[in-house]
Structure formats: structure tokens, C-alpha cells
Amino acid sequence: MTNTNEVRNANEVRTSTEERNSAEVRNGGEVRTALVIGGGIAGPVTALALAKAGIEATVYEARPEAADGVGAMLSIAPNGLAALAIVGADEAVRAVGQPVPGVVMQDGTGRTLADFNGFPGLPETLALRRADLFRVLADHAVANGITIRYGKQLVDAVETDEGVTAHFADGTTASADILIGADGIRSTVRTLIDPDAPAPGYGGVLSFGGITSTEGVEVKPGMMHFAFGRTFLGFWGLPDGRIVWFGSLPSEEPLTSAEVRAVPNETWLARLRDLYTGHAPGETLIGRTAPEDLMVVGPMEYMPDVPKWHTDRIVLLGDAVHAPSSSSGQGASLAAESAIELARCLRDRPTAAEAFAAYEALRRPRVQAITGDAQAKNKAKAGKAGDKPAFPTPEQMFAPVHKFQINWPAPA
Ligand SMILES: Cc1cc2nc3c(=O)[nH]c(=O)nc-3n(C[C@H](O)[C@H](O)[C@H](O)COP(=O)(O)OP(=O)(O)OC[C@H]3O[C@@H](n4cnc5c(N)ncnc54)[C@H](O)[C@@H]3O)c2cc1C
Known about the structure:
The chain is of the alpha/beta class and 412 residues long. It has two domains: 10-99 and 127-199 and 304-402, FAD/NAD(P)-binding domain; 201-302, D-Amino Acid Oxidase, Chain A, domain 2. The chain has 13 helices and 18 strands. The strands form four sheets. The chain has a seven-stranded mixed sheet. Strands 8-2-1-12-18 form a five-stranded parallel sheet. The protein is globular and about 65 Å long. The chain starts with 16 loop residues before the first helix and ends in a 10-residue tail after the last helix. Residues 1-23 have low confidence and may be disordered.
């Protein structure tokens, strides 16, 4: 296969945002085709970034169709939006997101501890439904010429010196130069790379959310409120005037999502009301949330350090290798960052193995720092933070995370 992309000398690389995001740079590498396993968040972004690097990628998704019923909310931070902008997906995501650029830190009595309005010059953090994010990223990929094959559950992968062949549950196969495991926190690709790879860890809390009216609760427009105290509650105002809240129940027992969902909402609400008694505004918000408006999210999980990120032709990205737990608000954003970084390394390094090693070296420290921070928050939520204050100021907390940007045209 030939490389049809423009080759540019690194000296010619300019660094304006527009140029950075639109640059099609290829310094030469052996990889021309890729199988991307997983059509969630990382998968479509990876395929788009690979196309920009001159690598033809097809996405294989286990779900039978594009629609994903998972309705939980998540956020895309400025760093995630910057990564999405490199493949031109940021506007589509913005169209389904609600800007929540600021953060209010408060204690459990309703008293404000700190206000933070976001960093000037960075895109605004968005809150959106996970299902909407899946949909717009898949649509954007398809509109840009990416093929997504649904009903393709990877069960095995056979690697040779020349390439890799994926085997799917329906008996079909597909071959390419490399295979990318973007198949989420319960990744099959992770165990194909290393049968002893760690399983997801449990953060010690079960996560819930809810929607209710604002009455009697001060909520600042465009601000995400983090209310600490004896236990934690996050909330923000919806455009329709209601409030979304998210909180958690400490639980020694790592129940599965199915087990959590099997318990009636009324039972969970009673336990949450108990825990949040005396917490402002948790007591009010949870107290008047109707059972049908409770979102039962499930156990808060994260990926412990994964020793092997890749073989010579198979590599992991997104939640498959670095799920930081939803306490970080960074899972989707990190998945987008890794997708871009992997494509940049494949564009610039001569072999897949060298590209994967460079990608791991670039990504591992960053994702470890964010995962470690999320774990500290989970401990605090589970009431195990000890005497040390678990939360720094908003600027300290967000600067290294939100200001991170990948310089796409720069050689990897
Ligand atoms: C309740 C909740 C709240 C969250 N909140 C936030 C937040 O606020 N901010 C944030 O940034 N992140 C948040 N996250 C995390 C975020 O959703 C994930 O980090 C993100 O979806 C990771 O993207 P991914 O593409 O790596 O994995 P996923 O989105 O999980 O996608 C993996 C895809 O692979 C497919 N797949 C799995 N196995 C196979 C197989 N064998 N063959 C083919 N396909 C397969 C799956 O069907 C899925 O579509 C939250 C997650 C949850 C569950």
C-alpha cells in the first residue's frame, strides 16, 4: 500500500491552533491498515486520527447497532475537546453538550469554599449524556468516511510477523497491519495481550445520580458544584431549570451493575437519604428525588496499572488500559487524548512496535497521575481519606489536567 498523505518537513510545521488541528503530516511508517475494536468513544476518534495520519482503519463494535442505551451523564473537559478538535469532532460534541465551564467548591453546609470560572482561552467543559457522545462520534466518523461494523464481537486475535487477524463471535475474520483494543474497561484485547492482565478495580463506592427541581437550592448557571463535607455530592443546573445531582454510597461489597440494578430504586433512595441527612444540599435534593428519577449507575471502577500495553502489532487505548474512574471526570477526555497520541506515533515511527512503545512512554505518566488522583477522591467518598485534606484548590486540581494539549504536527 502506498502512503497518499502529504509529507512535510518538521521545520515547516507551524503551530497556530488551526494549523495544529488541520495538519496532515506523515513522516513515514510501515503501518497502513488498522482494525479498531470498540466503537465507543476511543474507537471512532482513533479511526479518524489514523485517517489523518494516512492509515486506513475500520471499527468493529460488538453492539448490534449504533444506539447505546447507557444513559449516564459525563463531562468532556477542555483537554478532551482539544483532542477532539484535532479530528474535527469538537463542534458535533458541542452541539449535544451543555457548557459548564466553572466549578464551585462548597462544604456540606452550603457555604462556598472556592469559585473557579475555567481557564481563559480554553474550551468550556461540557456535560452530556454518554449515549449522545457515542452517537455523535460514530456519526462524525461515518460522515468522514470511516466504516463501523456492528455486531462484531472480537473473541480472538492472531498475530504474525506480517500482521494480525481478528476473529469475531459470528465466525468472520478481518486482517490488517495492526489491531487496536478500544474495547472498554472489560477489554477482551487486554487479556489477549496478557492473560494475567489485571481486572478492573473497585473504588469502594456505588454511584447514583438523580434529577429534581431547584427549589430551595442555590445553583449557579454554568457552574458544576462540588459539595464536600461528611460525604460528597456534585450537581449542576439543567437548561430546563431542574438540577442533576451525582453522589455515591460507600459499600465494602463490590456489587456488579446488574446486582445494583436488581435492588428497587426506593431501597437505594432510602440508603442515600440516610447517608446525606444533614448534608446541604444533599438532604434536600435526594430527599425529593422520585424513585423513577434516580439514575442507578453502579460500582465505581477503575483500571489498575496495566503492565503490558502492547505487543508488536496489538495495542490498547481508552478505558481498556487507563480507566481513571468517573471521580476524575476524565475517562472520555483521556480516551480522546490517547487516540490522537497513538495516531501521531504511528504516523511518525517506522514500525508499529516502535510507535506503540513511544505511545506508551508518552501516555503512561499522564494517565497514572490522573488515575491516582481519582483514587484519592474515591477514598474520600468512601470515608477513608484519613486526616489529610483530599482536595486541593480548583486551579491546582485542574491546571495540569485541563491545559494539556497534544501538538499534532510535532514529530512524535
Ligand atoms: C456512569 C459513568 C459516568 C462517567 N462519567 C465520566 C465523566 O464524567 N467524564 C469522563 O470523561 N468519563 C466518564 N466516564 C467514563 C467514560 O464513559 C469512559 O471513560 C469512556 O467511555 C471510555 O471510552 P472507551 O471508548 O475507551 O470505552 P467505552 O466507551 O466503554 O467503549 C468500548 C466499546 O467497546 C465495545 N466492545 C467491548 N468489548 C468488545 C469486543 N470484544 N468486541 C467488539 N467491541 C467490544 C463496547 O460495546 C463499547 O462500545 C463515565 C463512565 C460511566 C460508566
